[in-house]
Specification:
about 850 residues, alpha/beta, TIM Barrel, Ubiquitin-like (UB roll), eight-stranded parallel beta sheet, Gln_synt_N_sf, Metal_Hydrolase, Gln_synth_cat_dom, glutamine synthetase activity, hydrolase activity
Length: about 850
């Protein structure tokens, strides 16, 4: 029997990983040895003596080409960095969809958005006990919690909160299912008819316990479990249930899935879709039996692979398939904390599934085509249908195995087609520059050693390719441009090229203090460490499209059209461009929310989805590249210059900002009343930004031409004030559709423009916000009218780059948070810009070619 086709199908299949957890930062306190074992404490010291440890360590070392010792692998991880090892692991694993349960309280866990760098589709699984504990931790000890009837509080915990999250799925991480870890707390013998009185006593017991809340009362767990099943039915969401083995705090006797019989027999839940996790090991036969007799029961074998021996893994999966229909069995990695767990889970799953299907063919249970179809179902098709993942699959090649359709998303798997790689960076003046290297050299040399670049590169101005005098940067000294592999993308507008953003290092592994991405990373870490907050950002890109004409024998650039704001004919005339631009951005995993014609002649605006601030800044650089390149392809010039024509309106890069904590938008007010619809945290952060805004302008409006745009009565924010939905204020709180009346979800800064380096701009804004949080600053009353009519009541923002530079010199905050040397370079570049354009009045006209 020739099994070559089956082996190829299994080895090359793209995977849908329907049960995983967050990866942690490189400096997390979680020991790397935990990658190989569920043990903790003293028991972890015995992990290196297990069969699974020895096998898995060997596999990881071979992937990295490192010494086959724990120290050798750890040293490779340290030198390569988290981005590089993550890319290596996910590329080797060929995982295309990841569903993440973010309810584990890992030290320095990375948000769900971070994982989108390594898989085209990343979604969220909502752990109900974690959600309930988060809510109870917010209200525990309050009058509301102590007096609220349990039925009301429990329903509030489950239904409305989940409903809100699902309604917001289009602006956050889409929820694909719920999950319960009742097995870890009180066991799976769920009382679906728990009485109101018992549940009330259970809730009271939970609220009386020590902080932070950890729900362990059986009556209350049973209550929120059944309520969550009701919510799952309401929203047609599946429910994952932990079964079988796990951490030592689990009573394995209570994790046998047979205890779920009352739930499965309850007619209220007969239409629920339930998946039993971890192959229910060591109760795999019991799980297989349940899946065979209950139509609502499905199986997942994550964690059973690869934590067992080879024999144990194969036996467990065979037991699942003894009775359970193949259409009900799904792969997952249960990857957590370390990217290696995803790689190992995928690698071992392929080996085990091939072994099981090979034996089924040899024994006559399956034909080879049936086994190939089974591999397709187990690795992707079953999960896509079960979780309703809107993702197409197609046959690929001569083999009938599954291959996900990458026509709508970026894929870096066509490595053999790439011949050149653009290594890109943004400088102090906001220009985007690149070096180009052949792909082989990129792989062999650049990934490890980077590309040499002069110190002077961060001292250049908008029109002079040399270091400005007062930057303290010269042509003496060299840094290394180190590609951040998580940003590597196939270029959608040309063939056989990739692009990647670079960090600036003094030597590989040692960040250079002038690096804009490192500056944003550094200030973001302060916000996270000091306040457990993350800032999300979403940019609105305004730009002009210009076309060349001949006038009196000379070429002249004129607007693409002359139609008004939101003109249907303007969009129609340019739609052929946007039919290329929007798919190109989507292929780079950049969300486009909407676009329209702006009020300027030939001007358009494109709004991007919000995401973590580092990703938002990276996305903005790529967005500018895409728009300019596709316009150029069609003989047009796209410019993001703030005021390309002094007699027309200007272009900005308005940025919308929000604060997040554990996946929840905490800029928005929650509970009780709020005068302005924002939380105390949100108000203090925004007050800090407003207080420091005159100095922040030197970062986000970085050239003299920027101030030709920031003028009264032009919706650009010329006065130091804020307002609720006031587009004449530089800071505007916003209440987009879907947000409760009276609340706000974010605030907009209108001063940001297309000449700003987005990483430096967001870093400066973060610094101002951090100062507001540290000093509990308060906002003044909002301005609800055009501030230009208020006279001396409201302060004018800097009218020129000279004035904003002076404000920056007088503001000590930024040297402390961004670094003195970087600040000196920024001031030096800004001063040189002022001097140059004051002497060359028409020089600004050349900036359309640079921005």
């Amino acid at each position: 029997m020739d099994l070559t086709e089956l082996k190829t199908a299994v080895e090359e299949a793209e995977l849908v990983d329907a049960h995983a957890h967050n990866i942690v930062a490189a400096d997390s306190t979680i020991p790397f040895i935990s990658c190989f074992s569920e043990a903790t404490g003293d028991a972890l010291s015995y992990a290196p003596h297990s069969l699974s440890f020895k096998r898995n360590l060997k596999d990881v070392a071979e992937l990295y080409g490192s010494e086959k010792t724990l120290h050798g692998v750890e040293e490779h991880r340290r030198l390569a960095g988290l981005q590089a090892i993550s890319l290596a692991c996910f590329t080797a694993a060929r995982i295309s969809v990841i569903l993440i349960d973010d309810g584990l309280r890992f030290d320095k866990k990375l948000d769900i958005d971070w994982h989108k760098n390594f898989a085209p589709v990343v979604g969220r699984i909502l752990r109900i006990e974690y959600l309930a504990e988060e809510i109870l931790n917010e209200v525990s000890g309050t009058t509301f919690a102590l007096n609220c009837p349990v039925d009301r509080l429990g329903h509030w915990i489950c239904s409305p909160k989940i409903e809100f999250l699902i309604d917001c799925a289009t602006v956050g991480n889409k929820i694909f299912g719920l999950k319960s870890i009742a097995a870890y707390r009180s066991g799976l013998e769920i009382n679906t008819n728990v009485t109101r009185e018992d549940a009330e006593e259970g809730l009271a017991d939970v609220l009386r316990a020590a902080q932070p809340v950890r729900i362990s009362n059986k009556s209350f767990i049973d209550f929120i479990f059944t309520r969550s099943l009701e919510v799952a039915l309401l929203f047609d969401l599946p429910m994952q249930i932990h079964t079988g083995f796990g951490d030592k705090d689990l009573d394995m006797r209570l994790s046998n899935p047979l205890h779920l019989r009352d739930v499965l027999e309850d007619k209220r839940f007969s239409k629920c879709h339930i998946v039993l996790l971890h192959a229910s090991y060591p109760f795999s036969k019991e799980a297989s039996y349940l899946a065979s007799i209950y139509p609502q029961v499905y199986l997942d074998f994550g964690l059973a692979v690869p934590k067992l021996s080879v024999h144990g893994m194969i036996s467990s999966v065979k037991e699942l398939l003894e009775l359970a229909p193949i259409k009900k069995v799904m792969f997952s990695t249960d990857g957590y904390a370390f990217p290696e767990t995803f790689y190992l889970g995928a690698k071992k799953a392929r080996e085990v599934v091939f072994s099981v299907l090979r034996d089924a063919c040899t024994d006559g249970d399956l034909s080879v085509p049936e086994a190939i179809e089974a591999a397709k179902d187990i690795f992707s098709q079953n999960a896509i249908q079960f979780y309703k993942i809107n993702y197409a699959v197609k046959s690929s090649g001569s083999n009938n195995y599954v291959a996900l359709d990458f026509t709508k998303v970026n894929s870096n798997d066509s490595e053999n087609d790439v011949s050149l790689v653009r290594v890109m960076w943004g400088d102090t003046s906001g220009q985007q520059r690149c070096r180009v290297v052949p792909k082989k050299r990129f792989n062999d040399v650049v990934i490890k050693n980077g590309i040499g670049l002069t110190y002077a590169s961060m001292g250049m101005t908008s029109l002079v390719d040399g270091p400005a005098d007062e930057t303290n940067l010269t042509g003496v000294g060299e840094i290394r441009l180190m590609p951040d592999l998580s940003t590597k993308r196939k270029i959608p507008w040309v063939e056989q090229e990739e692009m990647v953003l670079a960090d600036m290092h003094l030597k590989p592994g040692e960040a250079w203090e002038y690096c804009p991405r490192e500056a944003l990373r550094r200030v973001s870490k302060i916000l996270k460490d000091d306040f457990n907050l993350d800032m999300n950002a979403g940019f609105e890109n305004e730009f002009f499209l210009l076309k060349g004409i001949l006038r009196d024998g000379k070429e002249e650039l004129v607007p693409f059209d002359s139609t008004p704001y939101c003109s249907a004919s303007a969009y129609d005339s340019a739609s052929y461009l946007f039919h290329e631009i929007v798919p190109a951005l989507h292929s780079l995993n950049i969300t486009v929310e909407q676009l329209h014609a702006e009020a300027g002649k030939g001007q358009f605006e494109m709004a991007l989805g919000h995401t973590a601030c580092m990703h938002a800044a990276d996305n903005l650089i790529y967005t500018r590249e895409v728009i300019r390149a596709i316009a150029r392809k069609h003989g047009l010039l796209a410019t993001f210059m703030p005021k390309y024509a002094l007699d027309d309106i200007g272009s900005g890069a308005h940025v919308h900002l929000s604060l997040w904590q554990n996946g929840t938008n905490v800029f928005t007010a929650s509970g009780g009343s709020s005068q302005h619809g924002m939380s105390k945290i949100g108000e203090e952060f925004m007050a800090g930004v407003l207080h420091h805004l005159p100095a922040i302008l030197a970062f986000i409006a970085p050239i003299p031409n920027s101030y030709d745009r920031i003028q009264p009565n032009t919706w650009s924010g010329a006065y130091k004030c804020w307002g609720k939905e006031n587009r004449e204020a530089p800071l505007r709180t916003a209440c987009p559709p879907g947000i409760q009346a009276g609340l706000v979800s974010n605030f907009e800064i209108k001063s940001f423009d297309g000449c700003a380096n987005p990483h430096l701009g967001l870093a400066a804004i973060l610094a101002g916000g951090i100062d507001g949080l540290r000093n509990h600053l308060r906002l003044p009353e909002p301005v609800d009218t055009n501030p230009s009519g208020l006279g001396a009541e409201v302060e004018r923002l800097p009218k020129s780059l000279s004035e904003s530079l002076e404000a920056l010199k007088e503001d000590n905050l930024f040297a402390d948070l961004l670094g003195e040397n970087l600040l000196v370079a920024i001031k030096g570049v800004r001063k040189a810009e002022i001097d140059y354009y004051s002497k060359n009045k028409d020089a600004y006209k050349q900036l359309i070619y640079r921005y």
